[in-house]
Q: What sequence folds into this?
């Protein structure tokens, strides 16, 4: 494994841990059993990357190593041991979710470029990698997906992807700068959106304008 692949692997493992804890924590709040919580955490962690790899036509990442299944199990053990702090703490959940989101956007972009796809595809794959696992998680726990709410979520992924691309144009031979800039943008926007209560406009329709059934 060369240095670039090792770096991406490390980011994927860290993102898997963060998203798995996020998913398991929500499953615990819904009183899922241990196995159900593990499945929710696993789907949260690998859902976006699985769809990305299928769309890019490359081997699905978690099928190449047992590490992702193992770290999800360790994440479950972590939540079981520290359940009071993790289940009750909304800030803790937000922190893990924001970190995982940023890391997975970077991974999605990097893998797309490695597969020789153009920048616009890489940005789209970054959004999918970062958000699709969370969409699946919310569906499994019977919540409205955060991706479709007015929160700055997918928009943060898009902004991070655009920053990655712009920084890459300026610092062509320094991918680490693009990666850090992308991750910082995603995390910064998520934190700022929550702190300042930023949101996108809601698409509202007057019920009177709807056709009668």
A:
């Amino acid at each position: 494994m060369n240095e670039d692949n090792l770096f991406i692997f490390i980011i994927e493992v860290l993102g898997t841990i963060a998203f798995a804890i996020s998913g398991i924590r929500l499953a615990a709040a819904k009183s899922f059993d241990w196995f159900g919580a593990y499945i929710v955490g696993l789907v949260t962690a690998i859902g976006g990357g699985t769809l990305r790899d299928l769309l890019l036509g490359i081997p699905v990442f978690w099928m190449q190593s047992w590490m992702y299944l193992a770290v999800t199990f360790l994440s479950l053990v972590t939540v079981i041991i520290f359940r009071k702090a993790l289940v009750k703490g909304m800030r803790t959940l937000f922190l893990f979710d924001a970190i995982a989101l940023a890391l997975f956007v970077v991974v999605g972009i990097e893998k797309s470029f490695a597969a020789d796809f153009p920048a616009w595809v890489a940005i789209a794959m970054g959004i999918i990698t970062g958000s699709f696992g969370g969409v699946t998680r919310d569906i499994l726990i019977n919540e409205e997906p955060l991706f479709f709410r007015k929160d700055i979520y997918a928009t943060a992924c898009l902004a991070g992807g655009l920053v990655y691309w712009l920084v890459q144009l300026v610092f062509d031979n320094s991918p680490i700068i693009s990666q850090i800039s992308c991750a910082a943008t995603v995390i910064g926007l998520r934190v700022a959106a929550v702190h300042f209560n930023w949101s996108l406009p809601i698409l509202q329709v007057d019920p009177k304008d709807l056709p009668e059934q």
